[in-house]
Every structure is written in C-alpha cells, then in structure tokens.
Amino acid sequence: VAVVAYLFFLITLFYLFTVSFN
Amino acid sequence: MRPLDWVVLCGTLALIILYGLYRGRGSGTVSSYLLANKTMPWWAMGLSIMATQASAITFIGTTGQSYTDGMRFVQFYFGLPLAMVIVAATSVPFFHRAGVYTAYEYLEKRFDSKTRTLTSIVFLIQRGLGVGVALAAPAVVLSVLMGLPDRRTVVIMGTLIIAYTVIGGIRTVTWTDVLLMSIIFLGIATALTASILMMPKDVSLRDALYLAGASGKLNVVDLSFDWKTRYNLWSGLIGGTFLALSYFGCDQSQVQRYLTGKSIRHSRISLIFNAVMKVPMQFFILLTGALVFVFFLFDPPPMLFHRAERERVEKLDEYGAAEARYRQAFEERRQAAAALLSARDAAARERYRVAEKRLEADRAEGINLVRRTNGGRPYNDTNYIFLSFVTRYLPAGVVGLIMAAVFAAAMSSISGELNSLATSTVIDLYRRHLQKNASDRHYVLAARLATAFWGLYAMTFALFVNRLGSLIEAVNMVGSLFYGSVLGVFVLAFGVKRANGHGAVVGLLAGLATVWWISRNTEISFLWYNVAACLVVVAVGTLVSGMMQPAEVSVPQKASAN
Known about the structure:
The complex is a heterodimer.
Chain A: H1 3-21
Chain B: H1 3-23, H2 30-35, H3 42-53, H4 56-69, H5 79-89, H6 91-98, H7 103-110, H8 113-146, H9 150-197, H10 205-214, H11 233-250, H12 252-259, H13 264-298, H14 307-313, H15 317-343, H16 346-373, H17 382-393, H18 398-434, H19 440-465, H20 471-495, H21 501-521, H22 529-547
C-alpha cells in the first residue's frame, strides 16, 4: 500500500483535547 | 482477591506459559535459542517489543501518576514514533546484514574488540540493575495489595520467569510475550471501561472529563519550553526521540526482539507497529488514572493508599482527628464538584479548587504522620492508587484479570531482559574472550546458565532492595546516565566514516562524564541528558578519531558483514 504524519495528527488531537477540557 | 480472582490470575498465566513452552520446543542450537533461527513474523516481534517495554510499573505507576499529576506524562512518548522510523531505516538493515547476535557485536565489526567489550559491559551493568528493579517494584506493590509477604511474591514471580526463559529461550519468550501483551491490552480496556461504568449514575463521561479538566488532570500537551520541566512537547519530541533511539537502537533487550525477524521487512514493520500503537496505549492508561481521580470525587478515597503504612499510623492518637478532618474536607469537595457540574461557572470552579486544596492539605497531614513514624523516609503511594481502586471496587473475576495484566507486564519485561543479558554475557564476553571454539551445544548450555544466573541475581537484588525503598529511584537514575552515551557510539558507527575504536571509546567516556556532571550540577530535566551525551560522544569521538587514525580505516571498503 505516514508514521510521522500520524504522530503529528495525534499530537494535534491531544492538543485539541487539552484546550477543550483542561 | 477472591477465589474467582485467583482462578483467573493463575489460570491465565499458566496457560500462557504452557503455550510459550510448547512454541519454544526444539531450541537446541545457539541460533534457535538466541535468535529463534530468524523465523519470527512482524506481528509477534511487534507485540514482543511492546511487552518488553511495558513493565508492571508502566501499568500501575502510570495510572497513579495521572491521578496525582495529570496526563502530561504521555508527552514522554512523543519521540518514540520518530525513533522507530530512524531505527527501522538505519539500525535494522545494518544489524541484519552484519548477521550479529548482539548490537555490540556489530561494533567490533565496525570498530574493534575494546569498543564491543566496553559497550556490552555498560549494557550488562545498566540492564542488570534494571532487571532487579523490574522485579522488586511490582513485587512490593502486589504484596501489599494481595496480602502476601513480599519475599514470597519475589520468589514466586522470579522462579516462574526464570523457568520458562531458561527452558525455551527467545522463541518461548517471544510467543509468551504475544499472549502477555494481549492480556495487557485486555487489562487496559477493562480498567478504562470499569472506570467509566463505576461513575455515579448522574455523571456522564463528558461530565467526568469536565471535572478531570477542572482539576488540571487533562494537561496532555504543554507547548511551553522549559529545560527544567520534565514533560512538555519539546522535551518529549527531542529528548524522547533520543531516549527511544537509545533504548530501541542500542539496548540488547530490544535489539534482540527485532533480530529474530524473518527478514529486514518483518523487523521494520514490527517497529512501525510499535510506533503506531504505543502513544494511544499510554494515552488510554493515563486517561484511566484521570477517570479514577474523578471517581474518587464522589466516593471517599483512603487518606493513605499504602495499606501497610496506613495500618501502622492508625494506632497513633493523632490519626483519628486527622482522618476526621480529611473526611470533612472530602465531603466539602464532593459538594463543590457537584455544584461545579451544575453551574459550570468561574465562581463554582474557584470554590471547587479551594476545596481540592484543602483536601490535599489534610492528606499532607496524614503523610506527615507516616514520615514521623518511619524515620523521615519519603512517602509515595502513587503506585498503590490504581490497584487500590481495582481491589476495592471492581467485581470478582475482573480484579483477577487486571492483576493478570499487571503480572503479564512484569513477566514480559523481565523475561526479555534476562534473555538479552544472557545473550550479551555469552556472545560478547564468554564466547569472545574465554571460550572461543566450543560446540553449539556448549554455548546453549552457557546461555541457559547465564539466564539462570541473571534471574537469581535479579531475585536477590529484589529481596535486598525492598528493604531500601528509595534505592529503586537511584537505580533508575544510574540507568539514565548511560543511555545517550551508548547511542553516541552507534551514531559514530553508522554515520561517521572516519570514526574508529579509539574515538568511540574516548567519546563514550566523555559522554558518561558529561551526563554525570549535568546531573550533579544543573536542574536540567533527565530527558535532555541523552541529547547532551550523544552530541558529546559524536563530537569527541570524531575529533579523537581524526587525531588517532589507524592506517586500515583510511582504505574505503564496502559495507559487509565480514
């Protein structure tokens, strides 16, 4: 049938999670 | 622990070990005993890599850390996927093509015998200390929670792990790891689900996240840069990458996992599998800890989670009054949390924070009572929080499953470490310096004896260290001093053409001295030690290699295994 992009996608997701809840 | 829990715990572990021994039969040659004849598929190696890294303290300590300090520890793992990519692209093809048993054996092919011997001895010291801690730390916690003497827990765990590791070698270790890691995943999912389902009926998951956030527990990403802050985005991305490079690229306990691969392709994909799975796994473990914190907003937590210490101070006259104040403070915090959920405004948030601070102050009183009666030793019950929740609130059977996951994490990390310690002892020291031309059978026997030796050493260390509490932290600290320097030697080997053995050894010693100085004289967080050490080793190693250039290195040669 990317790993680095996946990592930064996760970090962005976690950052949005932090901003939304913390 | 109820009878059903013991059945689940013992039954699960017994079946896993029997399966591992069945898959490991026929390990009669050095290649099969130490490298599984290079027949492992990527998914088995990937699960084994994860299982070796996940110790029992990873599971029970991380949830406790989230309870007390929030989820920011997840940033520690942000460098891991980057390191996996670098290791897959560089170390894997170098090691596979060189046909080595250990990472340090490669250094002799690239440099000389003294570099190999020195780095393998550094590994044996560092990992030897680590395997003792890996057995001691969970044994202490499990003893307290299961009501067993810690001596018995160490002996039972140690004997079990030594037995199957000695008998089956790496094939048994890997196939056992596959099932142990599956149990760990199941344990994490069960714990997370239980922490959600145990919430009061009128507290939804969104409410729970709101309260965890209001308590500062959902601090997953911190964008600020500070050398002294242990966990932020930058220390995770930069320092974490160097730490993971050291661990996965230079530590035999991990290198040996992916040296068993069918091909470079399988080894690379096993590392990529780890890169994809690790960060989300740690996120969910930490989220469980944050949700357990919210659970204890509505159900009174013990003032002291360490049961043995609590039972000791309960006899003091002052304990009753301190406990009563703590209960009163808990009730005020519970009401403040409920009010915050209803109002969700700044005033309610401020009232909640004041109540939270008061509860913490009352808990500190309890901790002071412990310190007054234990000779002033530091008190830390982080590792007891999660399992206290599990054993007190979860139903029979589920407790056994989560305990099986904790045991699985301990067994998988220790067996991998024993196997790699034995490999380096036999291949890098015994076969290289003491007995160069013995039979295959002789070296397999030597590897079995070395595994038993390191296992018995770990048990002795664990029995001894339990009497010395904070020594565990000191041992972890010593381990972190070595990592970056060994990474620097491998960077020289892979990336600096003019580097030679003299430069590598002098660079390694300079790196170790640098980290020692930084740790003693600055407040820089430990994640940066590896960066500094690696850079010093590469700089000094390159410089010294230039000054002490042996004639043979100036002749360009094609990379090969011979």
